Amino acid sequence: MIKDLKSVLKQEINIVNNLLDLLEEQHSYLVNQEVFNLDSIISKIEVVGKALAKEETKRRTLLNDKTMSSLLLEFGEDTELEELYKGLLTLLENVKTQKDSNDLIIKQTLSYTNSMLNMLKPRKENNTYNVNGKFKK
User: Fold this and answer.
1) Per CATH, which fold does 2-120 belong to?
2) How many CB atoms within 10 Å of residue 7?
3) Angle, helix 79-120 to helix 2-31, in steps of 10 degrees
C-alpha cells in the first residue's frame, strides 16, 4: 500500500508541476494581453485538472478514509512518504498563489474594459439636478 501511495504522490507532483507551468504561461499571456493564446491554455488546464482529480481519487481509495496526517503518524519512520506529501502541499500552495494572481489580473482587466466601454457608450438620458441639488439619474 505504501509503495502504491508513493507512486500516486509522485504522479500527483508531476501533474501539479505541469499545472503550475500552465498557470505561469497563462500569467504571461495575461500580462502581455495575448488573448488568442488564452483560449488554448484554458483547455490544457482543464485536461491537467481532470488528470489531477483522477490521481486524487486513486490516493483517497488507497487511504481508505484515513487522512494523510494520520497515515504519516502511523508510518513515521518513512521519511520519503513525508517528503513527498510536504512537497505536494508546497506545490499546491504555489498553484493557489499563481491562480489567485491570474484571477486578479483577469478581474482588473475586465473592470478596466467595462470602465472604458461605459465612457465610450452614449448615455440614454441627460444628467440633471433634482430639487436637492444632486444628480438625477
Assistant:
1) Methane Monooxygenase Hydroxylase; Chain G, domain 1 (1.20.58)
2) 15
3) 20
Residues 12 and 87 sit within 8 Å (Cβ to Cβ): no
**Domain edges within the chain:** 2-120
pLDDT tens digit at each of 137 positions of the chain: 788 888 999 999 999 999 999 999 999 999 998 888 888 899 999 999 999 999 999 988 888 878 887 777 777 777 888 898 899 999 999 999 999 999 999 999 999 989 888 888 876 666 676 777 776 65
Residue 107 pairs in a beta bridge with none
Residues with Cβ within 8 Å of residue 63, at least 6 apart in sequence: 5, 71
